[in-house]
Fold these 2 entries.
Entry 1:
Amino acid sequence: MPIPPPPAEQLRSMEKFRSVISQPVVAAFCAGGVAGAVSRTVVSPLERLKILFQVQSVGRDAYKLSVGKALGKMWREEGWRGFMRGNGTNCIRIVPYSAVQFGSYNFYKRNFFERFSGDSLTPLARLTCGGMAGITSVTLTYPLDIVRTRLSIQSASFAELGAKPTRLPGMWETMKVMWKTEGGIVALYRGIVPTVAGVAPYVGLNFMTYEYVRQYLTLEGEENPSAVRKLAAGAISGAVAQTCTYPFDVLRRRFQINTMSGMGYQYKNLRDAVRVIIQQEGIKGMYKGIVPNLLKVAPSMASSWLSFEMCRDFFVSLKPVEEPLLR
């Protein structure tokens, strides 16, 4: 029997959905969420290792190892789950974070800059839009980031933390404990000042560099570069942005666990943290964990930008074709 066509009401709903999701800002928002989940899962072991390096203060050497040996230690002690520890929370955080970041960047570009300057944006305008998008996304999703940090380190073999708990708390349980015992909403936004200070220039540099390199890698006569060249542009933009803003990331991690007993530091404020770290650990202390971070940047940002562009183009292509008016 032939399959009956869908009813007219269902067709109208589908057309309405396609019309909404194909809008540039909405398409960027949805594609950004997909891109965030893909990129974070690809580099989850290096992401967790970076955090373990970052939070290890002077005199602590549980993870004072090369990247390869540290990954081996993580595998021996915790197995595959150790590589993925905190990734579920990270994806729950990164999907809305990345969606808001890409969506708001597109929104700011279209409504605050392109409206006045035409289609061609200056590097400064792209930097500004990216910075605004970074602030918007991190403010809305920061509690999930601080919980992810706690989940990443609670099963690691830091002697200062004592014996590993037999049952590790999950995301919502950790968030609830922090809320009850560490000061409510203040606990869930601890470290947001260095985070915003680092995220705004990082996201701005990332967007600005990617769009510049992407344009440079687009050959004459092409509308878009190939997938390989998009991957290269994403890797370059991520490396540039991460290297320039990495000390802020270290400060963010330190403040996120500043109230955890046994980690060896209780910073009073941002200035005190910078002073103590440089005094005790030298300038290298501000760049702890940068090696695994740079190793993850290339595949992370490359996969993020490529999956974003592919998904965005797909959503935009869903725009219904308007039927010509009959005269």
Entry 2:
Amino acid sequence: MTEKSRTVLIMAHTGREGAVRSAKLVIRRLEEAGIQVRVLEDEAADIDCEGVEAHPAKPSAAEGAEVVIVLGGDGTLLRAAELTRGVGTPLLGVNLGHVGFLAEAERADLAVMADRVVSGDYEVEERMAIDVCVRRNGDITDRTWALNEASVEKASRERMLQVVAEIDGRPLSHWGCDGVVCATPTGSTAYAFSGGGPVVWPEVEAMLVVPISAHALFARPLVVSPHSTVAIEVTAESEGAVLWCDGRRTADVPPGARVEVRRSDLPVRLARLNLTPFTDRLVTKFGLPVAGWRGRVRT
């Protein structure tokens, strides 16, 4: 009886020379271990490795793969999530960018990461995603999703966006603002964080609503139930708005339309090498000062 072959998909930010070098190193280590490697067709020429399967940039590229190794920054991992979420293949990010909050390993960890994949020494966790739709006159005109956030932003630089926020079918407040961010816990360290929202631990089930530069007495960031439905209505007298999801997918939101956000039934799966506390990740990624900490007093 023959052993079942193993397959790994490699996705890389091939516009960076370091990502291409990293991809070649990882491919070599995986192939030496007898693991079949795939890359995307539009990245194959830059990676230029013989014997590697090239697949169209479609969800089928990840079908049958046990993991997708993503070499780049958070933007590259979000692109990978867009491609693979439907087939459920876990993503293992290697940070070659700046902060890289979604990544599990750094450039210096490449060889160790590849060896851990070879030995199957990793775990998989699920991250909450959100479903997003645009409604106009009751009809859905656009439907999409996000791992980090959906942001409703003003389309005109000269004027504020006029919106009414709604939670579970009840109006909450009118805001004149630059936009509103509806984020997941994973996205709490992204756009929502820049807008003054709270950092939420990934295992917390919740949605964030963060008004951006709002001219209103009540415009605090909100943390709502994961079972809630959040809606942002663009008032009829307002200029139009633009919906952005993870900074990648966009849709127009004309005056009088609304954006509805709710928890998705389909999460994004991330491969984890190091089950370190999220607190440690915050300290490392943001370079937080912890000098003077003595730890728990032990008796």
